[in-house]
Write a structure and sequence with these properties.
The chain is α/β, with parallel strands linked by helices. Helices cover 43% and strands 19% of the residues. The protein has a domain at 56-209 and 425-459: Nucleotidyltransferase, domain 5 (2-Layer Sandwich), CATH 3.30.420.40.
């Protein structure tokens, strides 16, 4: 990191910061090449920062039907949903309940976490008067790195996004949920599919749009998936008769990236040091922390605020991406942090710091999307829809534009073949579609789900 004696002015500091948070087209092309090498190694079962995990399902055809429940765990909130698939690409939520996860549950025991999840399902069942005499199929969206073992089985590789519940890493998570449901007396709930939120996002969008062939999460964390030719899945030769299988990349762990001193500081102080490099540079959980680290250094060098303001920025992760989004709007950012009076220079400086951090994130995401689309379609002769869910994509000012600019710089006029679509609530609806697709596939998984699904239509999750 630069010594204070080298920072003779605020302008010099900000100019240097712009260089540290830049991503040139040349650097972006290196990111794309790095992605392709890691994808190749991951698909072959070799050491790679991209897990390239099989999902055991293909994309939907759009004619799947039925009623399903979904449990969606991926951030600081959990949702329980009832989903109706009506065919012809139509899907709807007929009921939804949301629950905040206490911090002590996120970092406590694994049994405590899964008992909490089962309790949420129980509360939903009671609130919506589910018939306990019938089996209700539930798809479990579990948005963490999982080694998928079958359509309804997967082992947690490692916690991310601030979770650290003990005794879960290395365990099969569907079994843990089923055990918790039994402890709660919820025998009428049957867990029939395990899904990653990214795969769910792709499934929900491609149910209605056959051109959709990539799913991306851009919120608290980040991840991506796409349909891979089964012949390329060398680490999973028993792919069956299906010609494609959706692969969960776990791209948040991609690590062939140009990092700066602030990235290294954030990583070293994190719960998962050395992991989730891309996620720590582009996701909502970490962007505010990067800004906080920059501001603290500027205060220490006498370039921004007063030394007495330092305690306001002393708590890790106290500055969020939501705060950042307010920075260009004048005093709102500072009022949210409890700073009563600011100068025009301070307001401009903070706005510039936030812009630099967010712009690099958007450009990195754009380069990552370009890498995956180019892997699927090297000459880019087809149209591609990228389904994206998450608050950064949906709400952060200028984020989508930054992604688009990066695509245009890398792909020129061919970038027009790539369309972004917001897949709102995709992870929940997509989980239900995953269960329906799995039931229609040949082989043991489909047979099992078909046997378990005899009561699906009778369950009828209609409104009211």
């Amino acid at each position: 990191m630069r010594e204070a004696s080298l920072c003779t002015s605020l302008e010099e500091f900000l100019a240097g910061l712009a260089g540290e948070f830049s991503l040139s087209p040349a650097a972006a092309r290196e990111v794309v090449a790095g992605f392709h090498g890691e994808m190749e190694r991951g698909l072959g079962g070799e050491k790679s920062s991209l897990k390239m995990l099989p999902s055991f399902v293909r994309r939907p055809r759009g004619d799947e039907r039925g009623g399903f429940l979904a449990l969606d765990l991926g951030g600081t909130k959990v949702r329980v949903l009832a989903v109706s698939l009506e065919g012809e690409g139509r899907a709807s939520l007929s009921a939804v309940s949301r629950f905040a996860i206490p911090r002590e549950i996120m970092t406590g025991t694994g049994e405590g976490l899964f008992d909490f999840l089962a309790g949420c399902i129980g509360d939903f069942s009671a609130a919506h008067r589910l018939d306990r005499r019938r089996h209700h199929e539930l798809a479990f969206t579990f948005s963490f790195p999982v080694e998928q073992l079958a359509i309804a089985a997967g082992r947690l590789i490692a916690w991310t996004k601030g979770f650290a519940a003990g005794g879960v890493e290395g365990r099969e998570v569907v079994g843990l949920l089923r055990a918790a449901l039994r402890r709660r007396g919820l025998e009428h709930i049957h867990v029939v599919a395990l899904a990653n939120d990214t795969v769910g996002t792709l499934m929900a969008a491609s149910y209605a749009d056959p051109a959709c062939d990539m799913g991306v999460i851009l919120g608290t964390g980040t991840n991506a998936c796409y349909p891979e030719k089964t012949e390329r899945l060398r680490k999973y030769p028993a792919a069956g008769p299906e010609r494609e299988m959706i692969v969960n990349m776990e791209w948040g762990n991609f690590d062939l990236l140009p990092v700066n001193a602030y990235d290294r500081m954030l990583d070293q102080a994190s719960l998962n040091a050395g992991r989730q490099r891309l996620e720590k540079m582009v996701s909502g959980m970490y962007l505010g922390e990067l800004v906080r680290l920059v501001i603290l250094e500027m205060i220490s060098q006498g370039l921004l605020f007063q030394e007495t303001d330092k305690p306001l920025f002393a708590v890790p992760y106290s500055l969020t991406s939501e705060h950042m989004a307010l920075a260009s709007g004048g005093d709102e950012f500072f009022r949210a942090l409890g700073i009563a009076a600011t100068t025009p220079t301070e307001r401009r400086s903070v706005a510039e710091i936030c812009r630099l951090v967010a712009t690099r994130a958007a450009r990195l995401v754009g380069a990552s999307i370009a890498a995956v689309v180019a892997w699927m379609d090297p000459p880019l002769t087809s149209d591609h829809t990228v389904a994206i869910d998450g608050s950064l994509f949906e709400k952060y000012p200028g984020f989508q534009e930054g992604m688009r600019e990066m695509l245009a710089e890398l792909l020129e006029e061919r970038a027009e073949r790539i369309k972004f679509t917001l897949s709102k609530d995709g992870s929940g609806i997509g989980a239900a579609i995953i269960a329906a697709v799995a039931a229609s596939m040949p082989g043991a998984a489909g047979d099992l789900l078909r046997r378990q699904g005899k009561g699906r239509k009778a369950a009828g999750y209609g409104k009211g």
